Amino acid sequence: MKRRILLLVVVLQTVLLSTAQPGEQPDKNRVYDAKQTPASDTTSLLHALKSGRLTGHARSFFMSTQNEDGLTDYYADALGVTLRYETNKFHHVQFAIGGFSAFNIASSNLAKPDVITGMVSRYEIGLFDITNLSKRSLYRLEELYLMYTIRESSIKAGRQFINTPFINLQDGRMNATAVEGVWGELNEIPTVKVQLGWLWGMSPRSTGAWYNPGKSIGLYSTGINPDGTKSGYAGNIKSNGIAIMGITKMINDNVKLQAWDMFTENVFNTAMLQTDIIFPLKSNNFLFMAAQIIKEGVIKYGGNENQCKTYFSKESKALSFGAKAGWRNKEWEVSLNYNRITGAGRYLFPREWGVEPFFTFLPRERNEGTGDVQAIMSKVNYTILKERLKTSLAAGYYSLPDVKSYKLNKYGMPSYVQVNADIRYIFTKHVKGLETEFLAVAKLNKGETYDNKKSVFNKVNMMQYNLIINYHFSQ
């Protein structure tokens, strides 16, 4: 890893030295020789390199979780930097390289277990390397790809980021989930967008290493098997790749249809259909609504013939459907969201790969790993000061199976109420590129825990505070 970071630094330094500063003007006192300074060749490889773009992102993240009395509280303060360089086009081809690093500025002992439950920090560890809780830094060479563009379509090969309903950035910590493979976007048919690819590598959020898809499943908490025994699939899932395809069709300016399918070789298949509809009103007001259905099924043995070490058991299947409706204008957006996971089985999806696409999703908790779920969530967004100040208040009730219903409750999560309050400010003028965010999260228990604090610690009866500062810059 150190060699990769060193290589990245060398490449970036070379690019910086070979690229003129933005806005740089010729020296009027210098005499130029036409033979020594030929006109710029915009079709040359040298021009593509020199006219490339260097971008960066500095991020400060303070997080504090306060648990129920008697249980351990945690905090952490992280600082990270991302640097990325992308060449200009050379015969439709571009090259990009990007690296990331994060450091523990201050924190409680994140590897020290709570005395009562024996469990460690759930949230703060995600700011660093979850595979090594005592490590105080995190590095990753996260982008390294070639991209070929023709007309409105493109294809990338290598390490990159993608954002789909299933595999997505989930960048609620210091770095995002990255993938390695071939990814294409086709936009040649009017009103139709096709995205598809084959992925053979994953580097989940809060990790620095790269894994094949099977080995990446189980880096996060694994929960329990449907029979109540501890899950044993971490490091035991065999899968060489993921095929994913999505088609988005604009029926007209107000109706959009999406169809997605993700095939994880040797493990499981997930398919989703979704429609979004907008109803324009007077004075830039709009009503909107959407509906969604997701279906899952096992492939072969679900990753391992030994059902004690598999991710998807042989009888596993899941069905989820949801809907939302709301109103918005330039300043306000109000929505009511609903989601139902039927009792057919647990909705399973590797948390290492992305957040769930449910309309009722709120940051800091998921319904993945559960079945027989009823969830309802309402959200109000208010934007002012020419869209620089954005506020959001959301509250949801999530009815889950009993914590002892192991077949439908993988992580022993009780029913709960969650309230999120979020405020963001985007700076302009002399500090353009600077953004701040404050997120407060409250989760209250609404289910039976049988006096087992493992179903409470870092799950319910807790408050969490997040202060995030981002600065984006480019050259």
Describe this structure in words.
With 475 residues, this protein is mainly beta. Helix content is 6%, strand content 45%. It has three helices and 18 strands. It has an 18-stranded antiparallel β-barrel. It starts with a helix and ends with a strand. The N terminus is likely disordered.
Helical region count? 3
Q: Give the helix/strand class.
A: mainly beta
Let me know the largest β-sheet.
Answer: 18 strands, antiparallel, barrel
Approximate helicity band: under 10%
Shape: globular
What's the SSE pattern?
HHEEEEEEEHEEEEEEEEEEE
Note the gap between the termini: 26 Å
How is the secondary structure organized here?
Layout: H1 2-18, H2 45-50, E1 53-66, E2 74-86, E3 93-107, E4 137-150, E5 153-160, E6 178-186, E7 192-203, H3 213-216, E8 242-252, E9 255-264, E10 268-280, E11 286-298, E12 317-328, E13 332-341, E14 373-384, E15 389-399, E16 416-426, E17 434-445, E18 462-474
Antiparallel strand pairs: 1-2, 1-18, 2-3, 3-4, 4-5, 5-6, 6-7, 7-8, 8-9, 9-10, 10-11, 11-12, 12-13, 13-14, 14-15, 15-16, 16-17, 17-18
Could you provide a short overview of the structure?
The chain has 475 residues and is mainly β. The protein is built from three helices and 18 strands. The protein has an 18-stranded antiparallel β-barrel.
What are the defining features of this structure?
475 residues, disordered N terminus, single chain, 18-stranded antiparallel barrel
